[in-house]
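Sample A.
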Amino acid sequence: MQTLSEAISNLRTDESTEPPRPADLHDRLSSISFISLLAVQFLTVLNDHTFRWLVVPLAKRLFRHTPGKVSLAEDASMLALGLAAFTLPFLFLAAPAGYLADRFSKAKVITWCKLAEILIMLAGFAALGFSNIPLLFIVVALTGVMNALFAPARQGSIPELVHDGSLSRANGLMGLMNVVPCALGFLLGNLLATLAQPGDSDSISWQSLSTAFVVIMSIAVLGWVVSLGIRRVPAGDPECRFPWNFPVDTWQSLKLLSSDVFLARTALGIAFFWLLASMAQLNIDTFAGHDLQLKQWQVGVFGMVLVLGVGIGSLLAGYLSGGHVELGLVPIGAMGIAICSVVLYLAGIVNDDHRLIAFELSVAGLFFLGVFAGLFDVPLEAYLQHRSEPKVLGKILAATNFLAFSGALAAAGIFYFLLAILQLSPAAVFLVCGIGTVPVAIYVMFLIPGAMFRFLFFIFTHSFYRIRRYGEVNIPEKGGALLVSNHVTWVDGILLMTMTPRPVRFIAYADYVNNPWLKWLARIFEVIPIKADGGPKALIESLRTARKAIEEGHVVCIFAEGGLTRTGQMQPFQPGFLKIIQGTNAPVIPVYLDGLWGSIFSFKGGKFFWKWPKRLLLPVNILYGQPIHEPKTVHQVRSAVQLLGVESVQKLKSKEPSLLAGFIKTCRSAGSRIKVADSGGMELTGTKLLIATLAFNRLFRREIPADEQVVGILLPPTVGGVLANVALSLAGKVTANLNYTLSDAQLNACLEQGDIKTVITSRKVLEKRNFQLNAKFLLLEDLKPKISSFDKFCAALAAYTLPASLLLTLLGRPTRGTDELLTLIFTSGSTGQPKGVMLTHNNLKITIDAADHIARLEADDTVLGVLPFFHSLGYSITLWLPLCLPPRVVYHVNPLDARVVGQLAEKYGATILLATPTFLRSYLKRCEPAQFSKLDLVVVGAEKLPNELANEFKEKFGVLPSEGYGATETTGPAFVNVPDHRCELTSQKGTKLGTVGRPLPGFAVRILDPESGQEVGVNIQGRVQLKGGNVMAGYWKNPEKTSEVLQDGWYDTGDLGVLDDEGFLTITGRLSRFSKVGGEMVPHLRVEELLLEIVKTADEEGALPLAVTAVPDAQRGERLVVVHRPLAQPVAEILRKLGETGIPNLWIPGSDSFIEVEAVPILGTGKLDLKGIKDCALARFGPKS
């Protein structure tokens, strides 16, 4: 037989006794049926307590042998007899009550009881009117009969009307419906008693009872009406027969209860609660009147304080349970009851000398006594309902009620014995209650230490994190399962222990399990030690232990990375978990922990614990994925966990501060520190940057028509470019940074597509090139004088005084994450026509957060911004990242001007550089080591980074460039190698030369077979698809093209790649007909179209004259190659005419890049054989082996 502690380990969703409940029997807490049930409970308790506290003071006077003389023993006798009369029906009618709740619809039983209540109240007023004490006790007994029959139907209705996951909250609300009307009843009953018997008169008139009669009868009738709103659920056991032999049937119900030791102990706990509650309620009247010498009407105040405490405790228990049954609250509640009882005793004994202190102690003691009572009772009630089978739930609840009211009846006898026989003071009665609770608390802690520690851990984790849980329904209600989770902090296990709806056994390294400080705790939670360094036999034995636990129906959790991440990226999964799950028929449940990186328990910053948290109550997501049955590979499970990371980002994005809120807060944090600078000598501190952008924002709102959604920007990376971009975003405009290297025709195509009528630029830009664009130019030099003194005053006032959220609200901008469009970045499609990539506020915010996640960016970092803002990497990382994070940034307009770049790096102490291999070669030749002496993070993209170049750069400047990968459609970076010195690596690998790294946190990758479209495993080449919050919203006004590359959130890059078993991606080629030449995207098809116009048409047979492809190039990344049939014109003439079309020079193939062939390769379908064309080019120009 299991022990109770083993039962508690299966507490939250008990598998052995809880069959699936029919889905159509469940409603939400907001359903009409459940609200009606709550209202009936409210009115029943209100009437019960109003009538009781109307009767108590009146009956005490009628009961006294000597009119006008207060006798503690007589009052104790009357109160005890009244409680006994009310309680006895619960003992004798437990079985019939259970029968009614099972045999008939519980809603019908409730309605019948409410009708009976109306008749009973009429009899009660008759007894009061005739001053008939025996009849009054009979009415009290009848009230007990009604409540005895009502209680099982009421409690049994809860699991019929709400989901299991809402049981604790439902019981908390039901507890509240006990508390509020109980408190009101205390006050209302005493008030009505005062009206019925004013002064010291012992007589009661019919006229004086009229007000009480109207109030109480109205409540009774209203209760019956409301009961009609409870949904009629079919009877639990319509075939059961009436239990004519009450004692035998009650005994059988008790035997049924005792057959489950866990339910039996739970029921005894509930009985103990009722004993204490009854003692406290009886004792309040005598305690307030005798020890504290308060007037009778003031007793209601003390009673109200007590029951309000119970109500708050009930609600608190529901909240702290976190959607499951939390028995860890029970021992804490018991200890609290004991302490508060002692406090009340102290209040009674100090009353003579310190009346005010005694009163304050009494109020506090009674309130917290109620709070801890609620914490004690609600989890027990919820567990009883949760564990009981629906078919016998009525009998279980009836048996529990029998025990509960046995406790109440015992309370009546004990109360009379203590006050009337032993002649203890009421304060001493509280002391006896406290002393009697101590062994109960110790016993509960001994039985369920795991539950108590789980709750303490719950409090601990919620002190640091604001935790949200998703997908817990994916964990099976019964049977074994293996949770496979990423591993970020030391407290990951504690988080999963407290938030997983079923108890979890963890697999941990034996060194931790056997640690003297942790060994006892590991034993309580049955942690499975794994001896990684103990040899194969020890490892296999640990895996067998874990498998056996799953086979026995336990949920086991393993952190498959084998250690905490030091990079912030998910590490490779170890294959051991496949051996654990193999042959068990149990599912693997992928789990993702998000939001923990950067907390004091993570390794961010290169150390655990010894760092200040950047914010309190970090938002944390715990996601449980769809079960994976019989996983074949580690990659399958790791990919599922990675996808949960994508889902988590989507859930968090709307709850986090917006991009613009981050900008405002960062500027204020920077204060007088230089935040942005450029090679033109412009420098702005954080405060001045914020004021300047707010001032330009006011100006742009005046100068740019409100109906112009998209505004163009034709500026190089400078402070002016920063001000224009941010100010327009604050003004609610969509920015479009235009590529000033394109021809006028291409730029005008962008303007037309984006419906751009206004372009922000500068006189310096126009002096360098005479742009002929179909748009209105607004020059920064002309705009600056238009900023009035009032604009500057308003901007400064807002910058210094308004909270970020209020400032953004006044500007009409989002304060929280939003998918509102932020910018258009134009690129060229396969047709050569520009496509506007739509990037949202969330795209940028998520990308920036992911970059910060792995790069450890600090205030002493300086970004060297040489990438133009019309590139997604320049826009996201060199523009917005330093504006929303602590680093500062310094810009230069020409990335190939190595001399100036080196000078800026030396002057501002640049530590971070984003560049292309072409730029690095220029810096290698023209920059001195001293100029890059502080540089320690270099991220390279756009082209393949040759290993020789990376090593040469490291040799000269002391820092190894890290290759990354992304696209305009992914807001820039999606993959990156993490350098060792930025993540304080130990044995974990952050960089792998030749690859583009691992995905940024919150992003996912999959590789598809180019032919079948099916996902392939690791180390197999295929099409690269990316998914995450960084993926674009789509192409501007081009839904057809959007649907081609974006499906179910997956962006098809058109690139070929290989994902290895460590999660590193290697780009091997491109299927899409683009090339990156010198970092610029060159569309093959557009070049083809222009060449075809020059060479005119195909020959008589319709054969295609030429096709364009590309091959790797050591200097520029790639070179264009033209595969052609015999041409009628010289190559030089063709190239001359191609140059006259106005396309960029990078788009023009070299004269030595033409290959003559007999026929351009064509597939049987009539389409170009792209692979054949590329092979032809590689055979001529590819690298020599």
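Sample B.
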Amino acid sequence: MFPQPGKSIIFDTFPDPTDTWEIIETIGKGTYGKVYKVLNKIDGSKAAVKILDPIHDIDEEIEAEYNILKALSDHSNVVRFFGMYYQKDVKNGDQLWLVLELCNGGSVTDLAKGMLKRGGRMDESIIAYIIHEALMGLHHLHINKTIHRDVKGNNILLTTQGGVKLVDFGVSAQLTNTRLRRNTSVGTPFWMAPEVIACEQQLDSTYDARCDVWSLGITAIELGDGDPPLSDLHPMRALFKIPRSDDLTVKCLIKDFELRPNVLDLLEHVFIRQITGRAKILQKQLMELIDLNQQIVIAGKSRHERIHTKKGGQIMSSPTHDEVDDLATLEVLDELHTSYRLSTNLNIIFFSVCLVLPLAQYTKMYIGAKRTAYPPHIFAVADVAYQSMVSYNADQCIVISGESGAGKTESAHLLVQQLTVLGKANNRSLQEKILLVNNLVEAFGNACTAINNNSSRFGKYLEINFTCGGTVVGAKISEYLLEKSRVIHQAIGEKNFHIFYYIYAGLAERKKLAHYKLSDSKPPKYLLNEHIRLGPDIVNNTFYKEQYDVVEQCFKVIGFTLEELGSVYSTLAAILNSGDIDFSSVTSEHQTDKSNISNIAVLENAASLLCIRPDELQEALTSHCVVARGETIVRPNTVEKAMEVRDAMGKALYGRLFSWIVNRINTLLREDDNGLNIGILDIFGFENFKRNSFEQLCINIANEQIQFYFNQHIFAWEQDEYVNEEVDARVIEYEDNRPLLDLFLQKPMGMLSLLDEESRFPQATDQTLVEKFEDNLKSKNFWRPKRVDLGFGIHHYAGKVIYNTAGFLSKNRDTLPADIVLLLRSSENSLIRKLVTHPLTKTGKNARPNIFLSPSTKICLAIGDSGTGESTHHPRETTNMRTQTVASYFRYSLMDLLSKMVAGQPHFVRCIKPNNDRQANKFDREKVLVQLRYTGVLETAKIRRQGYSHRILYANFVNRYYMLAFPVHEEPLGSPETCAAILVKAKLENWVLGKTKVFLKYYHVEHLNLMVRQTTDSIVLVQAYVRGWLGAKRYSKILEKRTQSAMAIQSGINLYQFLQQKLNKIILAQHIIPLYFCFCNVSVDLKVCRMPRRTQQPKTLNAPEDSTYYNLIHVSLTPNSTEPFCVPYKTLWEKHFYLMAFSKNARLMSVGHKAWPKAEIYQSRQLLYGDSS
């Protein structure tokens, strides 16, 4: 009946559809393509066509649907098949057309939702009729050895005549006599049977045709309720809940499929047999419902998409379906590959896959958004950290980890970008400065390696400082473990730090190479490698020139002065020039080997840039002083020793210059210590090269420490809390790397302690070092590989790495001779003096200058510190000299870094490297799987799904969520009962109350926060209405007051006009006459003053009794004047008085005073009003 298994369909043998069919309109979307209504050009009949792209990944589904439709569509309850067509289209791509019967009645899901929208529900008899017809169609499939595997309401269509048709056979399975069961997990989550789900979780699980019975039982519930059970959950989360549900009591929902009835058994069920003899009547009623339903447009039509997983294969799904963003609900991670998803979530852990592609930015989309509202993105991590900081008033820490080249640095850039947007700095220049900090420090601290063109060669912890309200106010950067050895030597296929190439190309572009003693034809030795042999290889590089401009702009915007910038360039050029100094061996008369400089011109160039004397530099490089028994002895250096001194000077200058730049940035972006901060850790990733040295050991130990912190936070601390709170939770096994950390860091027998001990012996060699490791390190994680003399192996959490100890001791000692320190302190360049004057901290960095030290203290420090980690008043080498080693600096750096991380609430970003070839759109499944395993992703997903990721104190929980169950004005107690009442009100399950805390699943808190947000929004809306009403009331009062004031003004104007007409004489008074008036109900006291004699100025006194003179303002009497005005008394000039009157806006209330003579009062009223009362 069916074609032979494995025989593929040849698409181009099918006819062209445009010869027969014409598209009329779009109907909807199927699983793998759109569905259109088409017209038959020959007979005028109408049909439906599903148009598919012949993609290789879905050939199996296309073939299955074609075979089933071709063989089984002759049943009344299976959609009729009119044929397959193939349309060739070079421009838009070839297409397959599956032409099917047109079912104008829509799906039974649409019918059920339509009835619910009208306030009704589908009658049981109608449901029984639909289920009966679907069972008949399934019976036809099952007897022909076919399982549908995706039975649901959307795949049961109706015709306008009341017909019921099964459609969509893309994932149907064809059985054979030798294979009556299947073991592929496929279907739509809400309708999937438990045994189908179990196939993805249990290797030995299988199922048969009775899985369709379960799906049909779910569909029956869907017809009554409009949605399947658990539809309020995420589709993938339903996968894990359906097998454990206890409320599905219908016979077809028996969980053990061995006990579940088959299709024939259900056809005999009493619920189905109720339609016997009523089929025609029910079909007619169904037709009426379809006709009524088609008159209503159903808004928000939903379609639940199916998934298809194969054991060891990949998830197959519609390109348009809502993919899973939460690893806690997912067992197979290949979905990242299938759809090139770049990221996914696991509660506080964010996974990002770097596909070496330019990505669009979605800054505003993720601000304040729900975590599941949009696909996972690094911006969402920034928003979660920012919202947590503001909501809980607590510092946050974002830890970015992953292999070298996985995209950690780019992720850090995006985090800083989003946090500055969220912080909305009041000063736009501050925001710009913070964004440029990364570019500047990465130019000095990043380099090209064999596996990453922009590899971080230092650890960076950037703290962005905020006010308590969330406004950005500053930033601080801490640098750790700079790989200084890269300055003097790079492995094959690698380069020096970026900044050297940038300034070389940039200075050449500006014709300034000669100023810095650099040649444009031959680059310095420190920059030479297999790709760079000549100067033009650097000078002609456009990217380097552009980056020089970027770096220079960064310096200027952040706040460095031009003098400082010039000193930085001089120091870098001095390092490059010193690397070109060559030495030759000279045998003295005492047969002692000593060195001499063979290229004096280069020596002079380096000395000129360092602002020191050439002869002193030559002496410091070719000899050294030893103080023994109070006597200073000068000993010559061999060529090897002189080269070591030269290289040590270059490394020290570069390392201290880097620290100085970081300290200067921190000064210019001074942080607010009283606020909050979000820290971002961007540290070098795990490395495993063909040859691994001391640098790789330190890098990988740091990554082990980060992994330990991750394990402690995710697993150990969480499970310890379960025990302390007496919460019954399943223990998750995880790989604990603490023994490995002890192997490295334990005292006195740890690897770093043994390395320091061996470094103190002058006669120690790299061979004695590896032998000491083998004798003292007894651990399963350490071994000596055969036939590798200087090698040892470490089994890291990320895999096995073999290290070569050649150079371990010299790199660990990293001594800068005291002669060089003393010489550089005499430099005329102030920056170079600073670099060797300030002492190094325990972490090996330049100490930040303390501006509060007294001048005398600073002088003592400058004299006393040699710059080598110890204080001595005579910077000369002694026989018992003890200096700090790189290993000790490294140990203290880890401690300092951890102290910063532990201070904040952590958020983890795990960067996954898709391939080792640095190619875009290449997904190496094995490479990704290895990273997911060693980073503990699967264990993390388990503990997030089975454990309680959020543990909140009762008081804090009630304080935050009490409004969900109690009136806002109440203050309920922070008790377990109150917490339980809130959780019950929120309709949450599977939470636990401990002794002092509420234990919640990771999705509980998101649901609660959403409810709080909705409640808060409602409160704010009510407050807005109340404020609006109060504002309207206040405004009406203001209008009333304005009306009264306008009337008062009009009265004042009338009085003013009256006075102009009547007042032709001035009241004479020998004393101060108070005139009381009212302007807007405010009384003002106006006074009469004596006219000054000739040029005499009025005198200001404390009281009227002291004098008859008052110092008052005088203005001219004009009609438009609103100020007080004066009228000189002319009629009775011999009295020399004048009257200070009121403004035209005032209203006269009374004239007179108790001290006035009655005759004067009478005269005043007569003059003003013409009466004699």
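B remarks: The longest strand covers residues 21-29. The longest helix spans residues 1002-1062.
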